[in-house]
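Bug #2210: token dump truncated for Putative HTH-type transcriptional regulator YisV?
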Amino acid sequence: NRTTVMNAYNELASEGLIEGHVGRGTLVKRSHFEQEDEEFGRDYPSWLLGLTGDEDFALGPDARVLSELASTGERQEVISFAAGTPAQQLLPAEIIRSVVSDGLLTDTRHALDYCPVEGLQSLRRGIAARLRRRGVSVDFQQIMVLSGSTQGLGLLARLLLHPGDEVIVETPTYLGAVQTFRALGARIIGVPTDSDGMRVDLLESILARRSPRFIYTLPTFHNPTGAVMSQERRRRLLLLSRRYQVPILEDDPYGEIYFGDKEPQPLKALDTRGHVIYLSTCSKILAPGVRVAWVAAPEPIISRLSLHKQVFDLNTNALGQWIVSEIIRRDLLDGHLARLREQYRHKRDLTLQAIEQYWPKGTRVNSPEGGFHLWCRLPGEMRARTLLREAAQERVAFVIGEPFHSDGGGQHHIRLSFAAAEEEHIEEGIQRIGETMKRIQNR
Ligand code: PMP
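Reproduced locally. Full output below:
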């Protein structure tokens, strides 16, 4: 009735949501924000960011490639070989559910409180024990837990680099690392690679002429090439590091995902003098979402790194650390890894078989013995960008070679990650790429 309506009007007016206008009736009041928009405009004020634009420039031309890759999984209709992430079906949801449901309530202090900057001691001990099994002689004081190995790359670059310093990387290499080093002002020197990893024979002449601050390498199941550095080159690399006093930063996210019978050892297993700073992560062997990774290095480096880490996040999220620590303590990781190895080997084989069947002759593809990636040289003069553009219309995705090159190369290469692609779509996806290639060739 009328009184109810009047009461409602009065209530809205008392909350400032409507106002009466003589001759026009009662209208919804313009919000404070709308009034401000009218006065100042709707553009985001540049003074709020305080940027000139130069800060982003340091990140390089491919600044958005990684964040775009991280979100490709959300686009359902595309068959994607783009992101180097674990398969969704192989994420350890059941394992995590089980450790949380019967351990969390009794261990809340470790799981939910702040923890030491270096990480939960139980996890550091678990990681050290696993590394020892792989031939690396470390104890827990030489381990620091990180919020992703990305954080490790950033912290090490902050610790070791001054703007303008040079860093040696492999060509091609993991684009996230190059981006991080560049963002902190590094100048990148690329060393070519082949199927045995970094061309260490070419490294020496660079070290003789320049003074790089460190050498960044992916010796085992390289991203993107899948290569494993030969034993001989590993030994020579360590020798050069000692001779020229240049530390080595070993990035090893894929070492435990091997398809042969023999587990490859990290480069650090050969390091008797503490020249190798070793990084690895849970992102490929468990889940990127837990954001748990680690660095193994001599204690003076760990203590300097922890000062830098503290400034940024105090500690890696304790819940994620506790979960990983419990998975290791309850001996659940090895079974999970065995499953990953079997499934990813199968996906690699499916992908290679489909390539054999559907791609034109003249394409060269590696057959990696571990990791997530196939590195493909396109036939003749075919350009990766052209293929990507046309393949996108066929709703299939991958990453072009250029962002992995610090020297502008890679125009004729693409990286296919077989790990995350759904098994039942692999053949179809590879066929779509093959047909697109043939169409381009026949023009
Ligand atoms: N290094 C390499 C070689 C990688 O492939 C990745 C992930 N794609 C990372 C580091 C980053 O891993 P995280 O999730 O631990 O930051």
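Output looks complete on our side. The longest strand covers residues 187-194. Marking as cannot-reproduce; reopen if the truncation happens again.
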